Amino acid sequence: MDQGTTIENASPKGQSGADVGTRAGSTAANACTLVIFGADGDLTKRLLIPALYNLASSKLLSNDFSVFGVDRGQNTTESWKGSLDHMLRSFTTDPTSESYTPELDEAAWQWLSQRLNHIQGDFTKDDTFTDIRKAIGNGNAIFYLAVPSRFFAVIIEGLGKSGLLRQEDGKFRNVIIEKPFGSDLASAQALNACILKHGDESQYYRIDHFLGKETVQSIMALRFANGMFEPTWRREYIDHVQITASETVGVEGRGSFYEGTGALRDMVPNHLFTLLCMVAMEPPNSFDADDVRSEKAKLLSAIQPLDPNQAVRAQYEAGTSLGHDVSAYRQEPDVAPDSRTETYVALKLLIDNWRWAGVPFYIRTGKHMAGRKTEISIHHRPAPYNMFRDTPVDQLTPNVVRLLIDPEQGVVTQFDAKVPGPEMRLGQVQSALHYKDFFQEKPAVGYETLLYDCMMGDGTLFQRADAIEASWRAVQPLLDAWSGNQAQLHSYAAGSQGPEAADALLARDGRSWLPVGHEAGSQQKASK
Ligand code: BG6
């Protein structure tokens, strides 16, 4: 991440603006071969190939770059390229897609397409790894595990045994692992132990795609490149913090995956804790990957054991979402009619350190809610004394700083201002800054920076083994409490703000959630 850190003078769009989609000013990445396991899958088609195309279009790939897609199906190189060509053209011409562009950069796509190769192979067979070794030779290589998690250990063992992870003559051999990394603390520890038998920690890049989002990375810039936020960002001034990732989509045909996963495992120890780290970690000594990741791990291990009495799990019932009738979760394909899997979770957590002691962090995420909103809101304590007591003002409203991550990207501050007139009256005002008004953004699917960083050997935006385990350790008390059939499961109507029990969680502390939805742009695109 350090290679691309530059400062530009941002001005309202139309004048000079930084190209934030794919790191303006960065040089082409190191030469390497990218081997994608799961070449025929959705992730490859919808995100990896469009991200590589965007990198090619920004000239951020080396001339000596090539891709080998590996999968079991009947694809040949020609048929694979043909299906990717079809997909890319349909995404780039769809105005609702993250990859939409008024005009496909044909030269960039041809450049990339010439470098695409397909290997037909079963991930569980030794022959597959022999074929890969012959195909890629001795140069730098990245192995991308775009496969269901049950194949992670199998593939890494295959890579290890066939010598593909050996780094010789200064060449790198890196592995990118998608989520979910384990399903609880024990399985995450076992997976870490298994993969570390075959390679060094520095070779593993565990992805959390939230860290590929520009606005998540920009939280570090907001906090640590400015003098005005950080000094008040602590227990003396902050009343509480809310972290929300509400979605309008449901499980989108992923019922069989979701049934065994649920909202807690799917979103909390990974995406929501990533947001928590960005907003709450101490300033790292530098942008060096280990400095940043050590601060995150430190923060995660300071989370007090979660209290099941301070957490709510719920499942959506039938309702109306964005004007459409939505059936109940239990009616989704591949979902048991008596399923007890949660599609919503809300919880309160406390961080046991000097900066945050006593400040509650309220976290919630849910499918089929009233609006699409990924946001962190920092609620300040009210002004320390009421000098307005002899005026018509009877109440001061706490200031809120809202970090908008998705679909809006920016910062909103809410504060009190004097209403014009002879009397002292206060009105709440807000000032909204949208990054798109300052920076010209290229179409990006969020994987561009992550792929580029891996090619450059920069692990800042990836999760280290200790942080992964600290996250699972933090949620383990809830996993344990919710594992039987006894745990209470609340319900909420699809298209609503979530279950009443989640409102009660905050009401008990005299607080309330900021609403989700009913804002422009709260409609959701297909999720990862
Ligand atoms: C994925 C989860 O990791 O993240 C999905 O498995 C979820 O269930 C998605 O919808 C949310 O990501 P985004 O980028 O669409 O907010």
- Count of alpha/pi helices: 13
Trace the largest sheet across and list its strands. 16-15-14-13-7-12-11-8-17
Q: List the domain count as a whole number.
A: 2
Low-pLDDT sequence parts: 13-22
CATH-defined superfamily of the largest domain: Dihydrodipicolinate Reductase, domain 2
Q: What is the terminal-to-terminal distance?
A: 23 Å
- Structural class, from helix and strand content? alpha/beta
What is the average of the pLDDT values? Answer: 91
Under CATH, the topology of the largest domain can be stated as Dihydrodipicolinate Reductase, domain 2
CATH architecture of the largest domain: 2-Layer Sandwich
Radius of gyration from CA coordinates: 24 Å
Level of helix content? 25-40%
- Element pattern in H and E: EHEHHEHEHEHEHEHHHEEEEEEEEEHHEH
How is the biggest beta sheet arranged? 9 strands, mixed
Strand percent estimate: 15-25%
- Total number of strands: 17
The molecules bound to the chains, other than polymers, are: 6-O-phosphono-beta-D-glucopyranose
CATH top-level class of the largest domain: Alpha Beta
**General shape:** globular
